[in-house]
Design goal:
With 277 residues, this protein is mainly alpha-helical. It is built from twelve helices and four strands.
Amino acid sequence: MNYQGKNKLFLSIGTTLLIIVALLVIFAATPAARPVLLTLSGAVVLMALLSVVCAYEKYKRIKERVSRLPGDYQTTYLNIHELLGTYRMSEYDRQNILSMVLEIFEHANLDQRPVDDVVGGNLASFVDSFANETGKSQSPGYLFGYSTSLFLGFLLFIKAYKVIRTGSITPAVLNSETLDIGIVATYFIIAYVFVPWLILSIRKSTRQQWDGMQKLKLMIPMLIPVGLMMALIMINDPAWRSIIDRPLPIFASLSTLALGVLILVGTILLTRLHRCR
Protein backbone atom coordinates (compact mmCIF):
# COMPACT_ATOMS: atom_id res chain seq x y z
CA MET A 1 0.00 0.00 0.00
CA ASN A 2 1.35 3.47 -0.89
CA TYR A 3 1.83 6.22 1.65
CA GLN A 4 -1.28 8.03 0.55
CA GLY A 5 -3.30 4.86 1.00
CA LYS A 6 -1.87 4.38 4.47
CA ASN A 7 -2.74 7.95 5.40
CA LYS A 8 -6.33 7.43 4.28
CA LEU A 9 -6.48 4.06 6.06
CA PHE A 10 -5.37 5.56 9.36
CA LEU A 11 -7.72 8.50 8.94
CA SER A 12 -10.56 6.09 8.12
CA ILE A 13 -9.80 4.09 11.28
CA GLY A 14 -9.66 7.31 13.26
CA THR A 15 -12.97 8.43 11.79
CA THR A 16 -14.57 5.09 12.68
CA LEU A 17 -13.33 5.34 16.27
CA LEU A 18 -14.57 8.92 16.40
CA ILE A 19 -18.04 7.81 15.28
CA ILE A 20 -18.15 5.01 17.87
CA VAL A 21 -17.01 7.24 20.74
CA ALA A 22 -19.35 10.03 19.64
CA LEU A 23 -22.32 7.63 19.69
CA LEU A 24 -21.36 6.38 23.15
CA VAL A 25 -21.10 9.96 24.40
CA ILE A 26 -24.49 10.85 22.90
CA PHE A 27 -26.20 7.82 24.46
CA ALA A 28 -24.62 8.63 27.81
CA ALA A 29 -25.81 12.23 27.67
CA THR A 30 -29.09 13.47 29.02
CA PRO A 31 -31.97 13.56 26.50
CA ALA A 32 -31.93 17.36 26.45
CA ALA A 33 -28.24 17.45 25.49
CA ARG A 34 -28.37 14.79 22.79
CA PRO A 35 -29.55 16.91 19.82
CA VAL A 36 -26.70 19.42 20.16
CA LEU A 37 -24.09 16.73 20.79
CA LEU A 38 -25.38 14.76 17.81
CA THR A 39 -25.07 17.83 15.59
CA LEU A 40 -21.59 18.59 16.93
CA SER A 41 -20.28 15.07 16.40
CA GLY A 42 -22.01 14.82 13.04
CA ALA A 43 -20.28 17.95 11.78
CA VAL A 44 -16.85 16.66 12.83
CA VAL A 45 -17.40 13.21 11.33
CA LEU A 46 -18.79 14.73 8.13
CA MET A 47 -15.58 16.74 7.63
CA ALA A 48 -13.47 13.61 7.99
CA LEU A 49 -15.66 11.61 5.60
CA LEU A 50 -15.63 14.39 2.99
CA SER A 51 -11.83 14.51 3.04
CA VAL A 52 -11.63 10.75 2.36
CA VAL A 53 -14.27 10.91 -0.42
CA CYS A 54 -12.55 13.86 -2.12
CA ALA A 55 -9.21 12.07 -2.05
CA TYR A 56 -10.77 8.94 -3.58
CA GLU A 57 -12.44 10.93 -6.38
CA LYS A 58 -9.13 12.59 -7.26
CA TYR A 59 -7.43 9.22 -7.32
CA LYS A 60 -10.02 7.76 -9.72
CA ARG A 61 -9.38 10.50 -12.28
CA ILE A 62 -5.70 9.61 -12.68
CA LYS A 63 -5.80 5.88 -11.97
CA GLU A 64 -5.84 4.57 -15.57
CA ARG A 65 -2.72 6.36 -16.82
CA VAL A 66 -0.79 5.89 -13.61
CA SER A 67 -1.68 2.19 -13.51
CA ARG A 68 0.56 1.64 -16.54
CA LEU A 69 3.61 2.63 -14.50
CA PRO A 70 5.58 0.20 -12.29
CA GLY A 71 4.54 -0.06 -8.67
CA ASP A 72 7.30 2.16 -7.27
CA TYR A 73 6.45 4.89 -9.78
CA GLN A 74 2.77 4.63 -8.88
CA THR A 75 3.52 4.96 -5.18
CA THR A 76 5.74 7.98 -5.72
CA TYR A 77 3.28 9.68 -8.07
CA LEU A 78 0.38 9.27 -5.63
CA ASN A 79 2.54 10.68 -2.82
CA ILE A 80 3.30 13.69 -5.03
CA HIS A 81 -0.42 14.05 -5.80
CA GLU A 82 -1.21 14.20 -2.10
CA LEU A 83 1.70 16.47 -1.23
CA LEU A 84 0.70 19.03 -3.87
CA GLY A 85 -2.68 19.26 -2.17
CA THR A 86 -0.96 20.92 0.78
CA TYR A 87 0.27 23.84 -1.34
CA ARG A 88 -1.80 26.95 -2.01
CA MET A 89 -2.11 27.17 -5.75
CA SER A 90 -4.84 27.09 -8.36
CA GLU A 91 -6.26 23.76 -9.50
CA TYR A 92 -5.03 24.61 -12.99
CA ASP A 93 -1.42 24.92 -11.78
CA ARG A 94 -1.72 21.75 -9.72
CA GLN A 95 -2.94 19.73 -12.68
CA ASN A 96 -0.17 21.16 -14.88
CA ILE A 97 2.46 20.06 -12.38
CA LEU A 98 0.92 16.60 -12.09
CA SER A 99 0.87 16.28 -15.88
CA MET A 100 4.54 17.29 -16.11
CA VAL A 101 5.52 14.85 -13.38
CA LEU A 102 3.56 12.05 -15.03
CA GLU A 103 5.27 12.69 -18.37
CA ILE A 104 8.69 12.72 -16.67
CA PHE A 105 7.88 9.43 -14.98
CA GLU A 106 6.64 7.85 -18.21
CA HIS A 107 9.80 8.80 -20.11
CA ALA A 108 12.04 7.77 -17.22
CA ASN A 109 10.30 4.41 -17.04
CA LEU A 110 10.95 3.88 -20.76
CA ASP A 111 14.62 4.60 -20.08
CA GLN A 112 14.44 2.05 -17.22
CA ARG A 113 15.56 4.58 -14.64
CA PRO A 114 14.68 3.86 -11.00
CA VAL A 115 12.19 6.31 -9.52
CA ASP A 116 14.57 7.26 -6.68
CA ASP A 117 17.02 8.44 -9.32
CA VAL A 118 14.32 10.57 -10.97
CA VAL A 119 13.32 12.35 -7.73
CA GLY A 120 16.92 12.64 -6.58
CA GLY A 121 16.33 10.53 -3.48
CA ASN A 122 14.29 13.31 -1.84
CA LEU A 123 10.59 13.42 -2.67
CA ALA A 124 9.89 16.64 -0.76
CA SER A 125 12.65 18.56 -2.56
CA PHE A 126 11.51 17.19 -5.91
CA VAL A 127 7.97 18.44 -5.32
CA ASP A 128 9.25 21.77 -3.99
CA SER A 129 11.18 22.36 -7.22
CA PHE A 130 7.86 22.37 -9.10
CA ALA A 131 5.51 23.80 -6.50
CA ASN A 132 7.63 26.79 -5.49
CA GLU A 133 7.21 28.20 -8.99
CA THR A 134 3.43 28.43 -8.68
CA GLY A 135 2.45 28.00 -5.06
CA LYS A 136 3.56 27.89 -1.46
CA SER A 137 2.78 25.66 1.45
CA GLN A 138 -0.44 26.32 3.32
CA SER A 139 0.00 29.69 5.00
CA PRO A 140 -1.33 30.89 8.37
CA GLY A 141 -3.79 33.02 6.38
CA TYR A 142 -5.18 29.95 4.63
CA LEU A 143 -5.50 27.95 7.86
CA PHE A 144 -7.10 30.91 9.65
CA GLY A 145 -9.62 31.47 6.87
CA TYR A 146 -10.44 27.77 6.66
CA SER A 147 -10.86 27.40 10.43
CA THR A 148 -12.93 30.58 10.71
CA SER A 149 -15.27 29.51 7.92
CA LEU A 150 -15.80 26.15 9.65
CA PHE A 151 -16.40 27.83 13.02
CA LEU A 152 -18.89 30.39 11.68
CA GLY A 153 -20.59 27.80 9.50
CA PHE A 154 -21.15 25.57 12.52
CA LEU A 155 -22.52 28.41 14.68
CA LEU A 156 -24.91 29.46 11.91
CA PHE A 157 -26.01 25.86 11.43
CA ILE A 158 -26.70 25.35 15.16
CA LYS A 159 -28.52 28.68 15.36
CA ALA A 160 -30.68 27.78 12.36
CA TYR A 161 -31.45 24.39 13.88
CA LYS A 162 -32.54 25.88 17.21
CA VAL A 163 -34.69 28.54 15.56
CA ILE A 164 -36.35 26.27 13.00
CA ARG A 165 -37.28 23.63 15.57
CA THR A 166 -39.48 26.23 17.34
CA GLY A 167 -41.65 26.43 14.23
CA SER A 168 -41.47 30.22 14.15
CA ILE A 169 -38.78 32.37 12.56
CA THR A 170 -39.14 35.80 14.14
CA PRO A 171 -36.80 38.39 15.70
CA ALA A 172 -38.08 37.35 19.13
CA VAL A 173 -37.11 33.72 18.50
CA LEU A 174 -33.67 34.78 17.20
CA ASN A 175 -33.14 36.59 20.48
CA SER A 176 -34.44 33.83 22.74
CA GLU A 177 -32.70 30.83 21.12
CA THR A 178 -29.15 31.23 22.43
CA LEU A 179 -26.06 29.03 22.21
CA ASP A 180 -24.28 27.66 25.28
CA ILE A 181 -20.73 28.75 26.07
CA GLY A 182 -19.67 25.09 26.28
CA ILE A 183 -20.82 24.30 22.72
CA VAL A 184 -19.31 27.48 21.27
CA ALA A 185 -15.98 26.93 23.06
CA THR A 186 -15.90 23.27 22.02
CA TYR A 187 -16.27 23.98 18.34
CA PHE A 188 -13.88 26.94 18.58
CA ILE A 189 -11.18 24.52 19.76
CA ILE A 190 -12.13 21.98 17.10
CA ALA A 191 -11.98 24.58 14.32
CA TYR A 192 -8.81 26.38 15.43
CA VAL A 193 -6.81 23.52 16.99
CA PHE A 194 -8.08 20.14 15.75
CA VAL A 195 -8.50 21.03 12.05
CA PRO A 196 -5.14 22.84 11.54
CA TRP A 197 -3.33 20.16 13.54
CA LEU A 198 -4.84 17.42 11.38
CA ILE A 199 -4.02 19.26 8.13
CA LEU A 200 -0.41 19.91 9.16
CA SER A 201 0.00 16.34 10.45
CA ILE A 202 -1.11 14.90 7.09
CA ARG A 203 1.29 17.22 5.26
CA LYS A 204 4.17 16.29 7.56
CA SER A 205 3.48 12.56 7.30
CA THR A 206 3.54 12.79 3.49
CA ARG A 207 6.73 14.85 3.28
CA GLN A 208 8.57 12.66 5.78
CA GLN A 209 6.89 9.45 4.54
CA TRP A 210 5.89 8.19 7.96
CA ASP A 211 5.62 4.44 8.27
CA GLY A 212 4.80 1.84 10.89
CA MET A 213 4.10 3.20 14.37
CA GLN A 214 4.69 6.76 13.17
CA LYS A 215 1.33 6.59 11.40
CA LEU A 216 -0.38 6.39 14.79
CA LYS A 217 0.48 10.07 15.25
CA LEU A 218 -2.27 10.87 12.73
CA MET A 219 -4.82 9.63 15.27
CA ILE A 220 -3.67 11.94 18.08
CA PRO A 221 -5.67 14.97 16.82
CA MET A 222 -8.81 12.80 16.91
CA LEU A 223 -8.58 12.86 20.71
CA ILE A 224 -9.51 16.55 20.78
CA PRO A 225 -13.17 16.37 19.63
CA VAL A 226 -13.73 13.14 21.54
CA GLY A 227 -12.30 14.60 24.75
CA LEU A 228 -14.29 17.81 24.39
CA MET A 229 -17.58 16.02 23.82
CA MET A 230 -16.96 13.76 26.80
CA ALA A 231 -16.12 16.78 28.95
CA LEU A 232 -19.45 18.41 28.07
CA ILE A 233 -21.40 15.59 29.72
CA MET A 234 -18.95 14.41 32.41
CA ILE A 235 -18.41 17.74 34.17
CA ASN A 236 -20.94 17.88 37.00
CA ASP A 237 -19.39 20.50 39.26
CA PRO A 238 -22.05 23.23 39.70
CA ALA A 239 -19.54 26.05 39.28
CA TRP A 240 -18.24 24.66 36.00
CA ARG A 241 -21.73 23.74 34.78
CA SER A 242 -22.89 27.30 35.35
CA ILE A 243 -20.12 28.45 32.99
CA ILE A 244 -20.59 25.71 30.38
CA ASP A 245 -24.38 26.14 30.23
CA ARG A 246 -24.32 29.94 30.28
CA PRO A 247 -26.22 31.26 27.24
CA LEU A 248 -24.51 33.41 24.61
CA PRO A 249 -26.77 35.71 22.56
CA ILE A 250 -24.99 34.96 19.26
CA PHE A 251 -26.81 36.05 16.08
CA ALA A 252 -29.62 37.36 18.27
CA SER A 253 -30.95 39.77 15.63
CA LEU A 254 -31.42 39.88 11.88
CA SER A 255 -28.56 42.37 11.53
CA THR A 256 -26.03 40.23 13.44
CA LEU A 257 -27.23 37.14 11.56
CA ALA A 258 -26.66 38.91 8.23
CA LEU A 259 -23.25 40.08 9.46
CA GLY A 260 -22.35 36.50 10.36
CA VAL A 261 -23.26 35.30 6.89
CA LEU A 262 -21.20 38.09 5.28
CA ILE A 263 -18.18 37.25 7.44
CA LEU A 264 -18.58 33.57 6.53
CA VAL A 265 -18.56 34.43 2.82
CA GLY A 266 -15.54 36.67 3.40
CA THR A 267 -13.55 33.92 5.13
CA ILE A 268 -14.37 31.46 2.34
CA LEU A 269 -13.07 33.99 -0.19
CA LEU A 270 -9.98 34.55 1.98
CA THR A 271 -9.31 30.81 1.99
CA ARG A 272 -9.64 30.63 -1.79
CA LEU A 273 -7.37 33.66 -2.20
CA HIS A 274 -4.61 32.10 -0.13
CA ARG A 275 -5.17 28.77 -1.87
CA CYS A 276 -4.76 30.21 -5.37
CA ARG A 277 -2.01 32.76 -4.84
